[in-house]
Specification:
Helix content: 25-40%
Distance between the termini: 33 Å
Low-confidence stretches: none
CATH superfamily of the largest domain: D-amino Acid Aminotransferase, subunit A, domain 2
Order of helices and strands: EEHEEHHEEHEHEEEEHEEEEH
Number of domains: 2
Radius of gyration: 19 Å
CATH architecture of the largest domain: Alpha-Beta Barrel
Mean pLDDT: 97
Shape: globular
Largest sheet: 9 strands, mixed
Structural class: alpha+beta
Number of helices: 7
CATH class of the largest domain: Alpha Beta
CATH topology of the largest domain: D-amino Acid Aminotransferase, Chain A, domain 2
Number of strands: 15
Strand content: 25-35%
Length: 288
């Protein structure tokens, strides 16, 4: 299997469609050394990116939170994504938009004089957790915690914030788990490494208050689906010990979509009817 640097196709870079294998950056790119980068992961269904504009708006907002301005408007980002989708010839696709500080006059922590770049790529990508979408994912509990919003721009989708997620997922995979659940700096349940989390008890849904992590677009979509179904949703702080009393659990994210969870650490959950119903409703919505 070839790596992501060795594929046929084209990638949009700074206003031009570039051959996939030539879409490179300089070794002294600031983002490589200091993580000055933001990104979006999006899914297209039948050729249409779901909630595309919301993703573009969030990309711009994330850049502002980490102190740089993307030199493209939301409309221009939308046009770039449409060009990539057309060139890819794909119906169902994963779309990655990334913006970063490049190489320039500065090569230290400060980089205000360095240019900001943007790129868009699209490729085929199936279920993020493989067959876990049917049988339920198995999650480890990470030793790393989501930091306080006083220490990081916790609501930015910024590359540097995923370092502990990568380490947590590697540790989980070493234990034959699909992912890891992370707590926040106070010890409350937060999220998985790249997905938000929901629990069910007595027909009502409980999900962590996203006060120190990303309030995902898929998370917000699923909450709207639940409320349309007249299902009560509690957005609140959840203690880890409460997991014992929950009956069902699922993850949400652009990549994860709606994925049931069968186990977190020593806690087990059924892949129940509500989980399946919400997954089906989400699948129908994105393909409408």
């Amino acid at each position: 299997m070839s790596g992501y640097d060795d594929k046929d196709g084209t990638i949009w870079m700074d206003g031009k469609m570039v051959d996939w294998r030539d879409a490179n950056v300089h070794i002294l790119t600031h983002a490589m050394h200091y993580a000055s980068s933001v990104f979006e992961g999006e899914r297209a269904y039948k050729g249409k990116i779901f909630k595309s504009r919301e993703h573009s708006e969030r990309l711009k907002a994330s850049a502002e939170m980490v102190d740089f301005d993307i030199p493209y408007t939301v409309d221009e980002i939308e046009i770039a994504k449409a060009e990539v989708m057309a060139a890819s010839g794909l119906g169902d696709a994963y779309v990655r938009v990334v913006a970063w500080r490049g190489a320039g006059e500065d090569m230290a922590i400060a980089a205000a004089r360095n240019p900001v770049h943007m790129a868009v790529a699209a490729w085929e990508w199936g279920a993020y957790y493989g067959d876990a979408k049917m049988r339920g994912a198995k999650l480890d509990i990470s030793k790393w915690k989501r930091p306080s919003p006083e220490t990081i721009p916790s609501h930015a989708k910024a590359a540097g914030l995923y370092m502990i997620c990568t380490m947590s997922k590697h540790a989980a995979e070493a234990k034959d788990c699909s992912d890891a659940m992370m707590l926040d700096y106070r010890g409350y349940v937060a999220e998985a490494t790249g997905a938000n989390i929901f629990f069910v008890r007595d027909g009502e849904v409980h999900t962590p208050d996203p006060d120190c992590f990303l309030n995902g677009i898929t998370r917000q979509t699923v909450i709207s689906i639940l409320k349309d179904c007249q299902i009560k949703v509690h957005e609140r702080h959840i203690e880890p010990g409460e997991l014992e009393g929950f009956e069902q659990c699922w993850l949400t994210g652009t990549a994860a979509e709606v994925t049931p969870v069968g186990q977190i650490g020593d806690y087990n959950f059924e892949v129940g009817s509500l989980t399946r119903d919400i997954a089906e409703r989400y699948e129908k919505l994105v393909r409408t």
